[in-house]
Specification:
Immunoglobulin-like; 4-stranded antiparallel beta sheet; 3 domains; disordered N terminus; 16 strands; globular; 277 residues; alpha+beta; 36% strand
């Protein structure tokens, strides 16, 4: 689960806390009123609660005016999606400009979808979950309304991030768009062959390569991941439903020969890419 990545100031939670505080004080006063048989005391207590409520409301209103920002009109944003594809990687915290953006551990195979980030130069840092030591970091240069993907790849001692500017070409059909990411540390360069097609859709994708997006017909299909050198099937996926006018990332991850004690066999993760500019 991810926090709001702080593109917008968010006074909502603070206002709820203030209102709950007001309600608690008012409730306390009402309880005291029941104990007061003197009418003057009852009127005094009720008046005090009303005045205090209006006072806190004024503060809350001022706070709202200062903090609420209409991002669509005033704050330029970019959209960044993060993927954890390091097969022996620990659970992570994600920090943007030293502010953590996740509540729960960012685990292997997790991905975030597109998050809103301020544009310009941003510092992205990864630490072990609930720890302060930095495992690796990278700098991002983000343009307004642009889409980016960040892949955490590699194994212990050679982990690094891949940053990609995602670009979708407009098409006049309702077909899907797909790309492939090679994130398996011990797999050879790969091809991708769609069922029923004579030619490979992607060819010679090396470790840590991220292809561009290619158009495929929507509907249910199957595909094979092939060794680019000899054409042997490395792994395959059956009955994938590519929906019309949607975008997908296919991540080849895990190990061809998993180290002892791990169960991260080679597989393909099909990730839908949602965005809303």
């Amino acid at each position: 689960m991810l926090k709001n990545n702080k593109v917008l100031s968010n006074p909502y939670n603070r206002n709820i806390t203030k209102l709950y505080f007001i309600y608690s004080l008012f409730k306390l006063k009402v309880m005291k009123m029941r104990l007061f048989k003197n009418k003057k005391n009852w009127i005094y207590s009720l008046s005090w609660a009303v005045v205090f409520t209006f006072f806190m409301g004024a503060i809350t209103s001022c706070d709202d005016d200062d903090d609420i920002i209409d991002d669509s009109d005033t704050v330029p944003v970019a959209y960044v999606s993060l993927y954890h594809v390091s097969p022996d990687g620990p659970d992570l915290d994600i920090l943007v400009d030293n502010s953590r953006v996740n509540y729960y551990p960012f685990e292997y195979t997790n991905y975030t979808g597109y998050l809103r980030f301020y544009t310009g130069e941003r510092e992205l840092k990864f630490t072990p979950y609930n720890a302060s030591n930095t495992l690796f970091e990278t700098s991002l240069s983000l343009d307004k309304d642009s889409l980016y993907s960040v892949f955490v790849t590699g194994i212990a001692g050679e982990r690094e991030t891949i940053v990609v500017h995602d670009q979708f070409e407009e098409n006049d059909t309702d077909n899907a768009l797909i790309r492939i990411v090679h994130a398996s540390p011990d797999a050879p360069a790969i091809d991708l062959s769609l069922s029923g097609e004579d030619d490979n859709l992607f060819e010679d994708i090396a470790y840590r390569d991220v292809s561009g997006f290619m158009e495929v017909e929507d509907g249910v299909t199957s595909f094979e991941i092939l060794n680019a050198e000899n054409g042997e099937v490395v792994t395959s996926v059956t009955d994938v439903n590519f929906r019309p006018d949607r975008v997908y990332t296919l991540i080849v991850r895990g190990y061809v020969e998993p180290p002892a004690g791990t169960g991260e066999d080679l597989s393909v993760q099909v990730v839908p890419n949602y965005y809303n500019l």
